[in-house]
Amino acid sequence: MNLKLPQELDWRPRVFDSLSFPTLIMDCNGTVVSVNQKLLEKYHILKSRVIGKSCREIFRNLFDDPDLPCHQETCPLNKTIAEGVGHSVLRQIERQNGSKYWEDRVFSPILDDDGNVIYVIESIRDVTRTKALENILHDIRVFMNRLVQSSASAILSADRSGRILLMNEAAEELFGYNFDHTANISVVDLYPQGVAREIMKKLRDDDYGGRGKLPATHVNILTARGETVPVEMTGAIIYEGDNTETATMGIYNDIRERLALQDAQSQLDQSEKMASLGRLAAGVAHEINNPLTGILMYGNLMKEKMEPDHPLQTNITYILEDAERCREIVKNLLAYSRQSGTSQERFSMNVMVEESLRLIRDQSLFMNLTTKKELSDECMMVKADRNKMCQVVINLVMNAIDAMDPNGTLTLKTYRSNDQKRACLEITDTGFGIPDEDRLRIFDPFFTTKDPGKGTGLGLSTAYGIIKDNKGDIIIKETGPEGTTFLVELPLDTDSIELMSIG
Ligand SMILES: Nc1ncnc2c1ncn2[C@@H]1O[C@H](COP(=O)(O)OP(=O)(O)OP(=O)(O)O)[C@@H](O)[C@H]1O
Ligand SMILES: [Mg+2]
């Protein structure tokens, strides 16, 4: 049985036959009224075996369709007839030989002049290849997702407006956010002020790791827990086409542990260096001490024997003054090498700080300075060599003054350490800071950046020796172009704490 098409549709069977995929036309009862050449060729059947048959019969017998009988309500043919719009169904079909393929059956209505469905045209497209590509794509996506999620480094991506697009598990842990709750935060909020802009500037800079790339860089990040964490990050801009920036991505590694290790190592290096310099200093000091005693003794004897108006009086005075300076240096060297005797006394840290300030000979140095004293209200008793501790404070204060403009600010602050075991003193200036390359050398004997005659470079090394002798610590707590803070810590004298609490 052949479909009798109206006259004006006569050209359509030609189009129908030329379609490159199997196609059939059914009436509204599901009876096949026409099939195209491609369908006959593909399924090796005769037209007479399909025309007049129901679509169910055809699919069951000819196409091994396992889903038959199909359900009325899900049948795309019924839906197309009922709604007058096209529908499709995707099926995986197993051939008799066991191989599988995917078919996309697309049903389109043919309408009469009044818009009623009179026939339905069904095209059968083999989409096995597309489906296979889709599966590959899906697998790649799953794999990529696993790859990103399983990375030990934190990975984060954001769109151009800073909205977070991706956060792997390590990033959730590092930043302290759950990705599902990041709708209200911007990637800018994850850095201290100005850092995100700085990173974008470097990313766009051709000379900084190449366009769109940020090589390993140390930055601080801000976590949801309110911490500032130092990280090493690399970054990239993701482009669409050549120039359109669509997103940014960053890979982050927490470097707190690494920095702590480096710190411990450099402290170890520093104390080893101090120990060997100390031995050297002690040796030199002892060797110089004996001839120096001789020079001073015989010099003084000569001076006494000379008439007061003797022409060599001035020379011998200079010799004795210089020998005295040498003795002072030797004394300092011995203090640094911790070979000079110490006396132990119990005293209040605050009182000692006040006393040291009074002992500074040239009080005019403080004239234009702002001196802030933030001394702890708590009584902090320590047991140490009081005179030598004054010497330490005086040297730190003098260094601070030397580093500042005459109208700088000097701050002295005392407090107890969190563990209540140490008395702490911070001396802060608003000076020019200590350059990185000098930081490890300032405690070395004779290291000075001051003009000749202005500094011997023994102040900090002596202070170091004294503090170590008293079981304390002295470090640069902070330094930069805004100024420097030295921190001195001495063990609190717990005996006196107990005595005080009993009293
Ligand atoms: N507060 C500070 N700000 C900047 N630099 C400092 C500060 N304190 C110390 N320094 C640097 O450390 C160097 C060593 O200091 P140190 O006290 O040992 O010697 P000095 O002050 O140069 O000489 P001396 O103390 O023997 O008179 C100084 O020359 C200076 O470069
Ligand atoms: Mg000094």
Automatic annotation (TrEMBL):
Protein name per Swiss-Prot or TrEMBL: histidine kinase
Residues in Histidine kinase domain copies: 283-494
Species the sequence originates in: uncultured Desulfobacterium sp
Cited SMART domains: HATPase_c, HisKA, PAC, PAS
Enzyme class, first EC level, given as a word: transferase
PAC domain residues: 87-139
NCBIfam families: sensory_box
Keyword Transferase (UniProt): yes
Catalysed reactions listed for this entry: ATP + protein L-histidine = ADP + protein N-phospho-L-histidine
Source superkingdom: Bacteria
Boundaries of every PAS domain copy: 140-178
Any single biological process term in GO: regulation of DNA-templated transcription
Alphabetical UniProt keywords: ATP-binding, Kinase, Nucleotide-binding, Phosphoprotein, Transferase, Two-component regulatory system
Molecular function per GO: ATP binding; phosphorelay sensor kinase activity
E.C. numbers: 2.7.13.3
